[in-house]
Amino acid sequence: MIYKVPFMVHKVPHSAIDWRSQFQRLEGAYAPATMRSYRADVEAFETWCQENKCDAFPASVDTVCRFLQEQGANKAPSTVRRRLYAIRKVHRLLQLEDPTYDEDINLTFRRIRRAKHTRPKQAKGLTREYLERFLDVQPDNPWGLRNRAMLSLGYELLARRSELVALTTSDLEFLSDGTSRVIIRRSKADPFGQGRIAFTSKITSKAVLDWLAWRGPDITYLFCPIYQGKAVDRDLSTTTVKRLVKSAAKAAGLEQEIIDTFSGHSLRVGAAQDLLCAGYDAAAIMRAGGWKSINILGRYLEVAEHNVWA
Description:
The chain is mostly helical. Helix content is about 50%, strand content about 5%. A hairpin with a 5-residue loop joins strand 1 (about 170-175) and strand 2 (about 180-185).
């Protein structure tokens, strides 16, 4: 017979609770961006509890329900859900009785979701048509070499901006047929770094080789900053990708309202939409972009200019 060991709940004096020190246990287990979001979410809950004169840890079911209801008035359901998860995480770290699995919490969150009828915002897809226009307006200098290689590679790898700037020189293998084989070692959907393999066209490989010929061999990251006309041995920030896309859109002469719809995610979205229009099925597109969920991919593809009856 197998006996289950009951979960032990420790009664901790409210004055002794220090969730911030316990948060250090999460370091390395979650992405830095997730850690920042969780910390901000817990601080928002703690501040709300102080203003409403109720205990944050341990929190009652009623306290959490009221907090979620107020957050749901002006926050997206996804933000409210993340804040609920952060509250749950702290209770578990502190080994406190967890109120977040109560049915009233579930019902509260369902009401929040049903009250929000707005569709989630989707970055405009940087499709092949836009890509070619953006490449054509790049300057004939080192920045232009880097920009052309980043845009082309980001599109063909269906890369998230974090994946693109994290690539190292050793992640690329130039093949005998003029194409490239790329390993993307760490991504949002791959926290344990198993990696995924992707391939590029001959044109993109040529763009990358042109950039590397100028950049030189002694740089760790594939794409690096340029300072006073010289390559700097460090990585780029993820905001660099967003700035590149928007600046290229502006240089291509697009209207501001269209420029505003592009983001650092547009390369991934546009490539997925182009693959759909080219006749590839969802399984092939998921493999190419490293998607684990068909639901996420579906949001990208639903706005593609693809008429199945045409």
